[in-house]
Amino acid sequence: MNIIDELTWRGAINQQTDAEGLKELTENKSISLYCGVDPTGDSMHIGHLIPFMMMKRFELAGHHPYILIGGATGSIGDPSGRKSERQLQTMETVQANVKALTHQMQKLFGGSSNISFVNNYDWLSKISLLDFLRDYGKLVNINTMLAKDIVASRLDVGISFTEFTYQILQSVDFLTLHHEHDIQLQIGGADQWGNITSGIDLIHKIDGADEKVYGLTIPLMLKADGTKFGKTAGGAIWLDPEKTSPYEFYQFWLNQDDRDVVKYLKYFTFLDQDEIAELEQSVKNEPEKRLAQTRLAEEVTKFVHGQEALETAQKITNILFSGNVKELSASEVQDAFGKAPSVSIASEPKNIVNLLVETEIEPSKRQAREDVTNGAITINGDRIQETDFEVDPSAQFDGKFVIIRRGKKNYFLAKVR
């Protein structure tokens, strides 16, 4: 199957500058393409992952992707999708973020010999102001830029000259990569359409209108309820395991709505059409088994964090489902309960009733005694029904944690100080 046909089946294409031309181009030869990310933070979240999954698909189809880290454009600020001016970061912060994102990208894609990494600071930092104005600024029409959504959406509230020039800098990226690496296609999110077409316009002005270069954007990802994909009550789902643990990452995918899961299988996995069709039938015929969600969680977690992290996430999931938390290691406890309500306790043994009241897990001694007696309290997986029980924080989990559960689902992580 042609790569464009596959992306169409997966619902992964929003706009193309020349759909027929790009399909013909990719059928006849291997091409080079690129997608960029600006280092506005030290980690990508799953929303960033979508276009780079497409890059991986191109690579598997025999093409040569280039991943661009925007060390220069990241210091300027992309106005795309923003209602106000971006706060500029220090160059030290930008460079630290470049290093972090490069490491993250290489972990995701660096095992392949057919994916290259570039940083636009390497060429944009060498352009003087006069050269920028004479060689590129002269070729860009202000009226055309003002008509682009990326700029027009900001005219009412205002846009600085700094962010206004971002579109030109990204156009220079496409031009440079086209000249130096024969890159013919740029991929980006739906909000990058104006930047991508500006790059194509610049190439056509310099190299001629017949130069074969293309642009392709991905759709804006929305959940079935209309809300933005990738956000939870706790914030963004990060690719950095220090920000979102592999267990939390796995759980995010495992808990997807039946209405969304097939779409996400197409977007975020490399499963073929036959297997996805079978999983789609399972959603319709036996949704209670959640086979599609489980497969989705397995595939994406393995791709981002690796097989070992996936197995750990599955182990934690199975243990929490059974309630036998004593099988967890201290590090697994941290992953599993990192977002659970937490309390601080001393390292000395303490009566269970006093502990529950002092940590405010229970509102009163009367309620605490009642819940203990009724079997509603478990300590480190053991149901405790004696009100004179002494909780020893050093007994398990390297003396770092005590896991307290009230009822069936209310977990509290007591951190030993």
From TrEMBL:
Keyword RNA-binding carried by entry: yes
Residues annotated for ATP binding in this entry: K231
Residues annotated as domain Tyrosine--tRNA ligase SYY-like C-terminal: 332-413
Record-level Gene Ontology MF annotations: tyrosine-tRNA ligase activity
EC identifiers of the protein: 6.1.1.1
Cross-referenced Pfam families: SYY_C-terminal (PF22421), tRNA-synt_1b (PF00579)
Annotated motif 'KMSKS' region, positions: 228-232
UniProtKB keywords: Aminoacyl-tRNA synthetase, ATP-binding, Cytoplasm, Ligase, Nucleotide-binding, Protein biosynthesis, RNA-binding
Reactions catalysed: tRNA(Tyr) + L-tyrosine + ATP = L-tyrosyl-tRNA(Tyr) + AMP + diphosphate + H(+)
Subcellular location: Cytoplasm
Superkingdom as given in the UniProt entry: Bacteria
Motif extent ('HIGH' region): 39-48
Binding residues annotated for L-tyrosine, in chain numbering: Y34, Y166, Q170
InterPro entries linked: aa-tRNA-synth_I_CS, aa-tRNA-synth_Ic, Rossmann-like_a/b/a_fold, S4_RNA-bd_sf, SYY-like_C, Tyr-tRNA-ligase, Tyr-tRNA-ligase_bac-type, Tyr-tRNA-ligase_bac_1
Similarity remark: Belongs to the class-I aminoacyl-tRNA synthetase family. TyrS type 1 subfamily.
PANTHER family: TYROSINE--TRNA LIGASE, MITOCHONDRIAL, TYROSYL-TRNA SYNTHETASE
Assembly and oligomerization: Homodimer.
Alphabetized HAMAP family for the sequence: Tyr_tRNA_synth_type1
Function: Catalyzes the attachment of tyrosine to tRNA(Tyr) in a two-step reaction: tyrosine is first activated by ATP to form Tyr-AMP and then transferred to the acceptor end of tRNA(Tyr).
Name used for this protein in its record: Tyrosine--tRNA ligase
Organism for this UniProt entry: Secundilactobacillus angelensis
